[in-house]
Protein 1
Amino acid sequence: MTRQRILTGDRPTGRLHLGHFVGSLVSRVRLQYEYDTYVLLADVQALTDHAEQPALVHDAVPEVLMDNLAAGLDPGAVTFVLQSAVPEIAELTLYYLNLVTLARLQRNPTVKEEMRQKGYGAQVPVGFLAYPVSQAADITAFGASVVPVGEDQLPVVEQTREIVRKLNRLFGPVLVEPEPLLSPVPRLPGVDGAAKMGKTLGNAIYLSDPPEVAARQVMRMYTDPTRLRATDPGHVEGNVVFAYLDAFDPDTEGLAALKARYREGGVADVAVKERLIAVLEELLRPIRVRRAELEQRPEYVHELLRQGTERARPLARATVDRVVEAMGIRQW
Ligand code: TRP
């Protein structure tokens, strides 16, 4: 029996951080042998909000690929695909654009929030507004049935499902309708307590951060603003340091005990932060080691992407051909 397929991806605009890790990378690593897994380096999508910095996008591609490998993806099991080298995705996008209204894209909560963050207003690039449509092409091109994503991407996968249903209703069952897959920790706050960790927000901890940089970010973290002294009772809920411990500390019993003492005013913030620094170091050390090895082998990383893209492209070609045939155009 052939395995079901996973397709997920990253916009290469910089290195990956812990938000990417908990939102999507952990699911990729966990499911990579159970599913036929495809990871897209979405450079075309990255251009939708970096149109004037193609060099930045280009240079981020191997960085993101190395982050994926360092986080535990097995190059023997996973297919890495460069989006710009699969023009069939762009072709599908053009067909799908006719199945989506402007009003629907403007209502998409993810697009709305990202537009607000970037301050676009009416000056939003059309490509950016329409990125959920090209993401529908990413997902359907490879016939993926499962899409591991962070919480912020759920509305984008929902958009894909709508496009699939509409196309299948109009032209027959051509596309696979995908399901999103949320990880146990679908969202991680920024170290400053902002709802989301983001590169431009400067509130992220990167998978490739050296120990002292990661530690400095932990020391910056928001704790409990109502607490003045270590002997005051502390709040665990809404406390960024505990949100991270919840996400990463494998010793759940020890963590529960620490929370209890914190609530009673028995632990200083610094002690909680030191525990988090140790926990993150356990997680990041092996990632850092693997990444340093990969950095010594740029041709290997390049070749992996080239071969993966070559393997993947015929799948996308077959999907375009099926769609076009179902619509009955191009039959002259
Ligand atoms: N939009 C995703 C993000 O910003 C990246 C992405 C591109 C993606 N294509 C995808 C995610 C396809 C899942 C499936 O993180």
Protein 2
Amino acid sequence: MKDFAGKICFITGAASGAGLGQAKVFGKAGMKVAIADIRQDALDKAVEEIVAYGIKKEDILALKVDLTNREQYKAAADKVEEVFGGPPHLLIQTAGVNSFGPIEASTFDDFDWVMGVCLDHVVNGLLIFVPRMIKAYANKTEFHVATTSSMGAFMAGSGTGPYSAAKAAVNNLMYSYAESLKPYGAGATVLCPGNINSNIGNAEKYRPENLKNTGYHVSEGTMKTLRAIHADGIDPIELAEILKEGIEKGRIIVLPSRDTEAWAAQLRAQNEIIEDYTLPAPEREAKAAERMKEMMKRFAPAEGEDGKDAPRPMWGVPEGGEPFGKARDDLDWIDPNKKL
Ligand code: NAI
């Protein structure tokens, strides 16, 4: 898709972070932007920010929706058609949450919340919008579906179970759509960021009341650590520009940098890890230890440097923070090393 001006864009999770960046960038490209999010206060602020970025207020439609709720999502889709005169030409599903802890500590609430937002909402949007988009635009004008996934789609740590599972599923869904939409003159793109300067470190604060029974250790301190990590992430506007360029070029996967080769190398390294899963255990574990040693070297300051500007390992804990990814203290089957 190359022509955006005058067309309609529907962005989920657009009240902050990556989605808000996308609303600004695609709004600047001349699109009418519908922004859907669960937080009304954040939506109100987002509209102000998008207007301040130079987009006319009448070209913005803010919708308070729990995107995991199909009836609410359908009502939002109807509203977009009513206000903007048709379904979106560009659907970008970016809403997401995360929560980290040992997979064996996970509760049904952990899975339902994380997979509900990161995967089910994407399925909801595709099933609600794609038929409408095909009917309205197939082989008449360009249209496209995009989803914000994660580099987490290509890897899974012991503390990222529901999130990595959801993101891997989202990637595969988007590969299916990329093939399926071709005969209609449309395409699909999955954006796989590494780290974004966003609000996601606060996600636990708005975990729904009915899904609050987590098996993970969650506190102000763990959120502080996550906020510090995400503060080092890519700027959402820059990320949205990269996504826009990726959509224009017809990429199916968009990696979070203009240095595509660096990220392709990262992908190859991830694929090697997966390939190593086929090895007998001792061989695999020796390779994993070697890889970890190499990685730690990247974080060590070079000779003569004080290390102030060196890349920080993702698991650094700031002052007043707490390590995240631990289990709740009262779960009696959990290895004590996996508790705080
Ligand atoms: P963010 O927290 O700033 O934005 C996510 C938005 O989704 C929030 O505004 C939130 O209110 C909304 N949301 C959550 N549950 C919802 C629901 N049920 N219905 C409607 N809206 C809901 O976070 P960020 O980082 O901008 O996240 C955007 C996407 O990027 C997510 O899919 C996330 O998984 C992905 N991502 C984030 C990374 C990061 O480092 N922050 C790295 C890789 C991927």
